Input
Amino acid sequence: MRSGLAVAVLLAFIPMASAGVSMNPQSAPKGAYAIDPHHTTVTFCIRHMGISSYCGRFATATGKIVFNGSQPERSSASIEIGTSGIDTPNAKLNEELKKGFFEVDRFPTASFKSTSIALTGKTTGDITGNLTLHGVTRPVTLHTTFNGGLQHPLENAYAIGFSATTKLDINQFGFPDVDWRIFVGDEVTLDIEAE
Output
C-alpha cells in the first residue's frame, strides 16, 4: 500500500516537472552543480564482428559542472567513472574486461576534465578536454546538448540536464592485447546522459 502511494505521488510530479522545464540556459542559476550518480549514465558501443554494435555501461559516475548559462564558454565539467562498474550483457566478459583489459586494480577510475567550450547552437556546444583512461590521457571533444533545467520538484535545488557523445579509438589508450580483440572494431561510441 505504501509503495503504491509513493508511486502515485511521484507520477503526480511528472506533469508538473515537465511543464516547468526551461530550455533557456540563462534561466539556470550560475554556479557549481554536482552530477547526480543516480540519474547519470555512461554507455558505450563497439562494432562486433562488423555486423552489430555491442553495448555496455559504467555503473558509477560522479563529478561536477560549473555552469554559466549567460557565458557558456566559461563553464567547465569534470567527471570520474569507476571502471570496476563496467556492465555488459555477459557476466563472464565483465570479469575479463575488469581484470585483463581495463586492469581495474591498477586503473580504478577514468576521468574527463574540460579545457574549453565552444558553442555550436543555442543549446549545443563542443566540450573539449582531457580523457584519462587506462592511465593514458588523450584530448577528446564531447558534442553536448543542454536538455533544459527546472526547480527540482522533490529537492530544494535547481536541476539541469545534458546529453553528450564522442568517439574514441581504443588503440590510443594502451590496452593490453586480448584474444577477443580481433572480433571488435577500433572505434567506441561513448554516450553520457547527465543530470
DSSP finds two helices and eleven strands in the chain. The first strand starts at residue 31 and ends at 34.
